[in-house]
Amino acid sequence: MEIDNVTFSYDKKTNQLKGVSGLVESGKITTIIGPNGCGKSTLLGVMSGNHAPGGGRAVLDGKAIHQYKPKELARKLAVVHQQNDAPSDLTVERLVAFGRMPHRTMLGGDREEDERAVEWALGCTNLAGKRNLAIDRLSGGERQRVWIAMALAQKTPILFLDEPTTYLDIYYQLEILEFIKRLNEEHGLTIAMVLHDINQAIRYSDRIIAMKAGTVAAAGTPEEVVTERAIRDIYGVEAVVRREPGAGLHVVLTGIVKNSAAAVAY
User: Fold this and answer.
1) CA nearest 198: which of 171, 167, 161, 235?
2) Closest Cα to residue 214, out of 48, 3, 19, 5?
3) Is 173 in a helix, a strand, or coil?
4) Phi-psi region of 37 (alpha: psi -120 to 50; beta: other; left: phi over 0)
5) What is the Cα–Cα distance from 231 to 2, expressed in whole angstroms?
6) Whole-model pTM over 0.90
7) Are 211 and 266 in contact (CB under 8 A)?
């Protein structure tokens, strides 16, 4: 997917996105980072067709996102939103099966193909043994895997995730991110996601798009994007960027930059 000079405003007065351009490379994991309110989730919303850009366009396979019909787009990319709701007594299998809706027609579609896709999604997410459980009986990490399984059941080559680790403790955060990495490596999914944690973005991304105040501040590999100067300029905090055996590239935050423009914007 190519993002070309995209602008977007919720109120037609203030642009949340200001001429954003970027690239989501096929077969790679691209992570969007930046402070609260910088436009991360808004950009993902434009990329997934939930928001129509005021200017510019997001292009998938040579065609602007807003030109796709909903079912046509849903067969190309699946989205896991930040907050998800479903009846608490709905079973895991029933919820995952909703992922097959884009493939159904007035004549019902291929039922065997639907069943294979659901089984595959349950297997990928290690939820086959919990298929008959109501989702309110699951842990937070398990519930997040159910929503990802529903997206996987769509059988799309692209998966978008908006802050998939929100509200999870550190164990389940890493469990979900390890799982996302395996989906990319073992099944070749192209993945774009929004994360808050810089170190998690470094560890689990091939490319990073760093945003600030509705613009792209930096884009490239983790090594190219995550520098001490970039963290200071984007987040308004001081940091030490290190590379150590066993830990790899990582960031240690050391304090707030007083009176910085980034700190005020944040």
Assistant:
1) 235
2) 19
3) helix
4) left
5) 25
6) yes
7) no
The tokens describing 115, both together, are: 């069943």
Q: Dihedrals φ, ψ of 108, to 5°? A: 105, -25
Structure tokens at 80: 């896991």
Q: Which of 47, 66, 53, 58 is nearest to 18 (CA)?
A: 53
What confidence tens digit (pLDDT) does each residue in 114-152 have? 999 999 999 989 999 999 999 999 988 899 999 999 999
CB 47 within 8 A of CB 129: no
Query: pLDDT by residue (tens digit) across 50-78?
Result: 999 999 999 999 999 999 999 999 999 99
Q: Do residues 72 and 63 touch, judged by C-beta distance below 8 A?
A: no
**Residue whose C-alpha is closest to residue 98's, from 79, 116, 118:** 118
CA distance linking residue 223 with residue 205, whole number of Å: 11
* Distance between CA atoms of residues 33 and 205, nearest Å: 11
Strand positions, DSSP E, 81-189:
158-162
Q: Give tens-digit pLDDT for 21-40.
A: 999 999 999 999 999 999 99
**DSSP one-letter string for 215-242:** EEEEEE-HHHH--HHHHHHHHSEEEEEE
